[in-house]
Design goal:
This protein is an alpha+beta fold. The chain folds into 2 domains: 3-101, Ribosomal Protein L25, Chain P, CATH 2.40.240; 108-186, Ribosomal protein L25, C-terminal domain (RNA Polymerase Alpha Subunit, Chain A, domain 2), CATH 2.170.120. Helices cover 22% and strands 39% of the residues. The radius of gyration is 27 Å and the shape is elongated.
Length: 216
Amino acid sequence: MDKLKLEASYRSNTSKGRTKQLRREGFVTANVFGHDSESVAIEVKLQDLLDQIKSSETGVHSLIDLKIKGSPKKADGMVVIKDVLKDPLTRKLLNVGFQRVSMKEKIHVGVPIELVGDAPGAKFGGMLEQMLDELQVSCLPGNIPAKIVVDVSGLEMGSMIRVDELALPDGVEVLADPETLVANCRPPHVAVETEEVEVAAESSTAGASTESKASE
């Protein structure tokens, strides 16, 4: 599991005016919470955060060794990104929630799912669909998988893969319903059949109309 290092500064002024100023200057506001400690408001250089995430195989799911300058109480330590707030229009990152973690205590996290291989059913016109993008798991912070790889090379037409069929690393427990669908290969929608039915229906209606006129 990748461990990133990130520096932040304590944010004593949490007013809207100061928040807007920070964002104009290239910072993102954030909070550190959890593990029976009070929430601490901080500010992080946005580009530093993005660079760290991009450099890691586990991305936003990485463990982060967070150092906070100027905090009136000790808030440094290992954290994970628990939630993010983005502008609905620009998608720019506005705020980040960092959750404190203990390396000896399990946490609940979402791990991305990646499909690999070629589904045989897709070669015969089937549609390969990924129904689940992320799997909720419980594990120690040091055991968080970068991703869960799902091999679809055995998916025939009409077959599927459920959560209880996934192979997970030791120490990782699934929190999702075992019957949850991960991926399937469904038969293609045959539009021709629908068109034939519609044509038959129209012919039937026309025939009935002709008979009705003849009887008159």
